[in-house]
Amino acid sequence: MAKSNLKVQNIVATTSLGKPVSLTKLARTQSNTEYNPEQFPGLVLRIAKPKSAVLVFSSGNLVCTGTKSVAQVKQVIDEVIKQIGKIGVKITDKPKITVQNIVASGSIDLNLNLNTLALQLENTEYEPEQFPGLVYKLVDPTATFLLFSNGKLVCTGTKNKAQLDESMKQLNKNIKEAVKGN
Q1: pLDDT recorded at residue 3
Q2: Of all residues in the chain, what percent are helix, strand and coil, respectively (each to 5)?
Q3: Global pTM?
Q4: Which are the contacts of 51, defined by CB distance < 8 A and separation ≥ 6?
Q5: What are the structural domains of the chain?
Q6: Residue range 79-88: average pLDDT?
Q7: By the 8 A CB rule, do 70 and 164 touch?
Q8: Cβ neighbourhood burial of 75 (10 Å; 0-12, 13-18, 19+)
Q9: pLDDT attached to residue 44
Q10: Which of 11, 52, 145, 173 is such that its CA lies 20 to 30 A from the CA of 100?
Q11: Which own/partner pairs from 157-162 qualify as long-range (CB within 8 Å, at least 24 positions apart)?
């Protein structure tokens, strides 16, 4: 069957620092921040290396986006801890990081007939006038794929490498069966 090559493009992870953070103070002292409390309760903290953005809430909860690995997520959280240390919030415990979503892109070396797949696979949405890709929702493991006729794809909704690999395996199997059944 078609071999696939997935590349992680973005990881969304959450953690809690376990201490409240003064967002006003953070916004005043750090230049890499955006804070408009009348529009959104969180502060956006931009980290240059690894390039990412972290939502910081006054509760001490963080949402980290833009990294490409869990190791990078850890680096970013350490950097945030350093920066909030500058406003007097000392974090001594290592925060527990939870990956909420992985976005990966890749391809299967097959040209896909999206009309056929839309008919053969369950849980698909395909409206070529509105969007050129087919949306395919896998149930086990939970993942959502965007499939394009040239074989390129985007996968979202997995929480770790094993789920990502497993969903890719399942996708390959399902496509093979759908193509055969036609």
Answers
A1: 52
A2: 25, 35, 40
A3: 0.90
A4: 66
A5: 18-94 (3.30.310.10), 101-180 (3.30.310.10)
A6: 95
A7: no
A8: middle
A9: 98
A10: 173
A11: 157/101, 157/102, 158/101, 158/102, 158/104, 159/99, 159/100, 159/101, 159/102, 160/99, 160/102
